[in-house]
Amino acid sequence: MKCPHCQESLPFKLCPNCQGEIPEKSAYCCWCGSSVKTEEEGEIDFSERILCSDGNCIGVINERGVCNVCGKAYVREPT
Fold first, then answer.
1. Gap between the Cα atoms of 36 and 18, Å rounded
2. 26 and 55 inside one domain
3. Position 42 confidence tier, pLDDT thresholds 50, 70, 90
4. How far apart are CA 68 and CA 51, in angstroms?
């Protein structure tokens, strides 16, 4: 696979569905759209993610306790 801008060779892998060349760390095939996650990457469990406490942000809280988009610290809602 070559970079469309500089023509340098890029690391790639083959899509398990269509056998197209895709960038090495791709989660989806750019040719057929199928998921190309490997066994060691595992499945993403969306039910366990914590959304940013800022009501206007679309980010999620990362392992450091801050939003991955706006960088604000997570604030728990009072129960």
1. 11
2. no
3. low
4. 10
Rounded distance, CA 75 to CA 72, Å? 9
3-state secondary structure of 50: coil
* Total residue length of the chain: 79
pLDDT at 62 over 70: yes
In the chain, the largest separation of any two C-alpha atoms, in whole Å, equals: 56
- Residues 24 and 56 reside in one and the same domain: no
Structural domain harbouring 72: 45-79
State yes or no: pLDDT of 16 exceeds 70: yes
pLDDT at 79: 66
